[in-house]
Description:
- The chain folds into two domains: 5-74 and 178-262, Periplasmic binding protein-like II (D-Maltodextrin-Binding Protein, domain 2, 3-Layer(aba) Sandwich); 82-174, D-Maltodextrin-Binding Protein, domain 2, CATH 3.40.190.10.
- 41% of the residues lie in helices and 23% in strands.
- It contains eleven helices and eleven strands.
- The strands form two sheets. Strands 2-1-3-10-4-11 form a six-stranded mixed β-sheet. A five-stranded mixed β-sheet has the order 7-6-8-5-9.
- The mean pLDDT is 97.
- Bound molecules: ligand ISJ.
- Residues 9, 11, 13, 36, 54, 73, 79, 81-82, 104-107, 146-147, 150, 180-181 line the site of ligand ISJ.
Amino acid sequence: MSCPRVGHINFLNVLPLTWSYAHGADQGLAITRGVPAVLNNDIVNHRLDVSNVSSIVYARDSEELVVLPDVCISTDGAVQSILLVSRKPIDDIKDDKIILTAKSATSHCLLKIILRGAYGAIPNYFVRHITPEDPIPEDATASLLIGDDALWLYHHKQPDLYYYDLGYEWKKMTGQKMVYALWVANKNFAEQNPELLQLVYDRIHRAFQTGMDHKKEVIESALPHKPFTYEQLDDYLGPTIHWDLTAEYLEGLRTFYSLAHQMNLIEHIPEIKLADVKR
Ligand SMILES: C=C(O[C@@H]1C=C(C(=O)O)C=C[C@H]1O)C(=O)O
């Protein structure tokens, strides 16, 4: 095998890695860019060898996957880019109709856990494509958005709607950190290609360090293409989004899996198997 097939989420929450790939870290890798839901599907169908995926995907397919250590997309509290936008206060949501963005998987579960666990609500959920300019379809009470769409909404709030940050809500409910996304490798690929796995791990792990050493340049690289200011991205990347998969973040991930299991969103609580790479 020559070029490992690597999935990359095309959201600003991984901008340091996007920047590093554009500055040579993609050499020898075949990169596929997409929204989480598409990459989730591609890794479990073996169209990718390694990918950034929704963290719930690992729990659903842990027999076939291993987790790359030290890297993830996570927050300790507010995330800004995973939002429930609602026509009514969250306390008044009961069996209402809620639209879930088709781009996500983890946040679907996170919202269900929070609404049931913290607000006693069991709404009717429907998955649809939603745009941030028109976030709540006429027939629904609320919508869940993620990524750049949600970040844009966070900075363009309408006075007649209510906004809830699910990172903040998770921290309030559990006291824990939250891991939204992991990098996983297909087990067969990992076992048969240890050197390529090491190469991909080194590139991704280093990219966040190098990227943050060049934070100004990294942010400026996105400004011409994205509807955000320097200050907004400076606040989002670094203090808000974290990329270190430390013991505390792993604990938050285990709590998430455990609550997802209690709600029958996953069949079992997986053991988190880390890929065998030199760190
Ligand atoms: C923080 C975020 O984390 C993400 C949320 C995901 C999900 O809900 O499945 C998947 C990947 C991450 O991009 C975000 O998208 O804003």
